[in-house]
Amino acid sequence: MSVYLEEQYFTAKKVDYSLWRRLAKYALCHRTLLARIITSLVLVALIDTAYPLFTNYALDHFVLPRNTAGLVPFSLLYFCTVCLQGFLTFSFINRAGQMEMKIAYDIRQDAYRKLQEQSFSYYDNTSVGYLLARTVNDIANLSDLIAWSVVDVVWAGFYILSNLAVMFVLNWKLALIVISVVVPMVLVSRLLQRQAGEQALSIFKDIPEASPLLSGEDNAYADELAGKAVERGFIQVKGQALAYLPLDFGDSRGYFAMLSAARRRDLRRKMKLRDAVEVESIALGDARFSDRSFREELYAMYLEVYEQSRIHFDLLSPSFFAALLGGAGGGVNGLVVCYWHRGVLAGYNISLIHNNLFIDKYIGFRYPLSRDLNLYFVSWLVNLEIALQRRCAAYVAGWTDPEVKAALGAKFTFTRHLVWVRNPVLRRILYLLRHFFESDSNSLNRTT
User: Fold this and answer.
1) Nearest to residue 351, comparing CAs of 333, 366, 331, 364?
2) In this predicted model, what pLDDT tens digit does every residue of 353-362 receive, in sequence order?
3) Of 6, 94, 288, 347, which sits with the fewest C-beta atoms within 10 Å of its C-beta?
4) Does some domain include residue 408?
């Protein structure tokens, strides 16, 4: 069994100011919008600073002296302040979203202009799918970074400054004491961080936990690894739920018989559109995947699913996708199940067959056509039928959507993550809050 170690490094790296200057130019192209965002953020920071002053005034004038004189105008002022903050918060969120979209548009315009200036040889060596992934994902990340970094920096900066100002006005001696303590603490923590080395966070990811899909030897190895890691201070966090369906029924009628009456009716209603879909199975390595335009169409549909998904796994590269469709030199046993509607490819599944398991690995949909055809449910039943025809022991339906798959009769086997946090305080906090990161387990517990 393979175990993957992922490390994230949180050490301070030299800031590339030239890059930030180039990115800032896109925000400065919209100065009026930027000024309105900054104005809203400054006012919100000032209001946040005022709330403790409101509390202090209420304690001194109403609570301690048990006096209600002036309480009504104070309450009205407090209420108006809350409403103003709500309006300003909505304002900067709305305008920051506008800024994000405008910046993305500007960057894409520059990118498309640059692409038009490239030579033909550039496109011979660079796939369209790769360019699409870069222009969709990277530009979206850049626009998000620019717009919301303004929000974070401006609000946090003015909030700190306004708090310092209030502290000095109320009690300058106490303010100096706080600064004399906080500043050395920050400097010491930075020094300790550098001396501690780069490895701030280590994760053993997706370790099986008594999986019925693995051998006893594999499960024993996983348990031994987890036990030794926990002994050394790693935190064990329950991972995602892997859905699978034991194929202990002979055909689709046997599958429907195991479902509840309500689920059978719902699934049969969704399956009425199956006749509108033509199903085609193509083995990995087939000559059809040598067609570059067909591969790029499949990759673009994979990206559609990736972009609309709430949970993102690693983004597959076009080169990996091409190698997989090509059968990886004959080393991969699997097939691509395509769903056609009136000559248009509406969706597909890439499934692998390994150790007598039918594994639904990757999926691509063309939206909104795939939703109109209920392809999620149609492909579920088609995969079951193919797995039964090939006499597989189980259909492995993958991660995500545990509630839907549970309703379709799936069982689940969980993985676990072993997490090492270098900072002992953060490690203790993570241990106490670990259950909040176990989303699949919490979701399935709510449905049972």
Assistant:
1) 333
2) 988 999 999 9
3) 6
4) no
